[in-house]
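Exercise 7. Predict the joint structure of the components listed below.
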Amino acid sequence: MSDWKMVIGLEVHSELATNTKLFCSCRNKFGGEPNTNCCPVCTGMPGALPVLNKKAIEYAIKMGLAVGCTINNYSVFERKNYFYPDLSKAYQISQLEYPLCVGGGLEIEVEGKKKFINLDRIHVEEDAGKLIHDNTGTMIDYNRGGVPLIEIVSKPDISSAEEAVAYLEKLRETLLYVEVSDCKMQEGSIRFDVNLSLHKEGEPLGTRTEMKNLNSFRAVSRAIKYEAKRQAEVLNSGGKVIQETRRWDDEAGKTYSMRTKEDSQDYRYFPDPDLVPIETSDEYIDSIRKTLPKLPQERIIEYQKLGLTEQDAKLITTERKNADYFEAVVSLFNEPKFVCNWICSEIFKKLNSSEEIDTDIQVSAENLAKLLKLYKNNTINQAVARQLFDEMWKSDFDPEVAVNERGLAQMNDTTDLEKILQKIIEDNPKATAELKAGNQKTMAFFIGQTMKATAGKANPKLVGELLQKLIN
Amino acid sequence: MDYLKCSLYEIRQMLENNEISSVELTKLCLDRINSTQNLNAIISTCEEQAIDAAKKCDQARKKGEKLGPLAGIPVVIKDNINLVGTKTTCASKFLENWISPFNATCAQKLIDAGAVIIGKANMDEFAMGSSTENSAFGVCRNPVNEDYVPGGSSGGSAATVASFQSFASLGTDTGGSIREPASFCGVVGLKPTYGRVSRFGVVAFASSLDQVGCFTRTVRDSAIMLNVLAGEDKKDMTSAKILVPDYEKSITGSVKGKKIGIAKQFFSDALNNEVRANIEKAIKLYEDNGAEIVDIDLPSLDTALAVYYIISSAEAASNLARFDGVKYGVRAKNFSDTVDLYFKSRTQGFGKEVKRRIMLGNYVLSSGYFDAFYRKAKKVQKIIRQEFETAFEKCDVIICPTTATVAFKLGEKCDDHLAMYLNDIYTVPVNIAGLPAISIPCGKVSNGLPVGMQLIAPHFKEETLFNFGDFYEKHAKEI
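Solution:
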């Protein structure tokens, strides 16, 4: 295996989160009772005609721009002709010769090593329906038929399963950043095809196999590892890899031959005469460019300038909603590092412990900024800050009002605190002796007692200082 | 008074003057369809719907409501046009029992204009043919002489108007399917510019060439029909966003100073002498009335037929792939797997000509042949289009025969496919270039069969066709 080099190209199908389908006005939504969300157009009734949803083109261009593609001013929908029951017209409207976006790429990082993965193209096409099998036979649900997809095709620049996963993660992150797809793998709104071949350094490329419709990063990683090993075994034993499509069986952890090149389909592509070429002016493309959010790579550099570590900057930019939130809080309370620490600890803890997959941050940026300000300027101590944050997460409120109404401000008055401490020292001679002897663990006991006596409002730092003064 | 023999324009006035009610007129037409059943022009009538629509029209007229331009007038549509509640068979066994769930835009426009749709016209299966002999529901006969074909593919639509069953009808024209039958049956047949009339709801044969048009007994009627049919449709991306003029007003009664282009390629030896003589007389008439004759050159015209059969078959193969036995139409009873289901259903559902075109289309699109056929045909199409555009720099209208010969006998060309295909040599180039054209009756030959004259205009200049056509129609008896 060791001297074989993997050459991998990935095709990523991602459903676009438009309101309606690509060529009709049916809602673009997941699920629903079978065949309740379709019409003469997406079920291929005789005489029905497609009408392009311009929003899908806008979304595809947005993604293209985010990954540095050139957007073609002229692109064409073609018909990919093949028979399959889930394909209502017996052709899929897709793009071949003139795709919407070409070129571009993105940088990945594996074990500290950076690498640029080039894209071949991004094109727009429609999704097919779904077959449902049960013991009475096979049925077809056309609800998904006609949902807009983009197919993102990489160049064969990927050389390992780890790189493939890093690439897919980056791609998913970008799709979510530009908000063109919800990327819900469990709903199949993002799916992957893997093309893989082996060769030796300096030698021509080998014969590739294709594994279609993988639906998780884990499956992609396992399929690559399995298929590379299988091909290496074939080659090492003097055999030849056959160009074919192979099915990945996730349970068995194996690939199986589906069809070879000889019996592969001839799709007989030709421009769809029902649609006109898509003409996108530079002005239009620029207007979409203006709506692009700042992307992670840009934000990571910016955040580091604000004083965040690279690691924190990466962590907080993984998802756009967190980065946007971070920026919103910082715009109100200019303590980036302090804000970042709170988000990465307290907020991520909440998000990760939530049972729902896509929980939103429950505290408004305004209220978090206020809370952190109160904490930072010692109006409240950490315990109170956490307590309030917990309550705000459940039901958001203005922490300034709560601190005033509930008298939660920290006790910073030394005379009052001294009186309380004096009493605690008198009541606990044994502990006092230990503290005097230098046992710092007893300090916690004293702080605890003080908090108890002050309903948690004492400034712990001040308590420590006063205690040292009193016992000496 | 023989109401049925009136033009659409005349009957509209009679309806307006309450000389006859729409219900009475509709019944007369339905009776006429019954008494001329031997023509087999109609696949199905929609009596109930029609009488109901006629009643509503009569009531509205009584109340003095504002009525549409076709109010109360019985019309027929070709059976590849969807109309809710009717079977849209495309003259194919495959869709024998398929009921339209939605209206085609052109059908909806007729309804909105107040027309009473009384039936669906016979045709060549999926509009593939030039004689209406390829109908799964029997051949249609030419009303002028029943031993002869009415032309095709819109043979039923031509025959219904020629036999006074209806006042106008809709057809579709992909390579001559309106103009050729109009010529054979002695009526006016209009094929508008590609994109002028919405194709939404019309079962596609070749999407880039198909165009909805109409049959009428006069040129003015044709203009009235196009006024109703034309216009952009948001449901058809290939429909044109170009303003629709009032076509009836384009009839000026004069051709003085206008230029008529004559291409030698349209008057080759293939042209029947009697047909040639009639067309030449018509041209002379225009010349005598102040029109100027200019020679034009269309050197690539002889390639149009090949281009047509490549492009139309390619698109047809793809358009007809949806008829797979899965969702609607014929489903074979016994099948072993899905491939067998497709194979058997399509074998049983489609007629021979349709199968021939599907095979041809898949062949020209298949890898290894695509560049040599489909791509080359698209290139030649551009050249033909350019040649017409150059020609129209020198003239307002091009005149030629609609067909090289008059109607042929039933069965005469059934086994000679090339002869059948050659029938379309004068009409096909117009579709290849996307131009508007009209066929108007131009006398008869010695056996009594009508000749058709084809007028071709630049893109979206249907007005020119109506003006020239109407002029000839009014002055023809002077010849």
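Discussion. Chain A has a mean pLDDT of 92.
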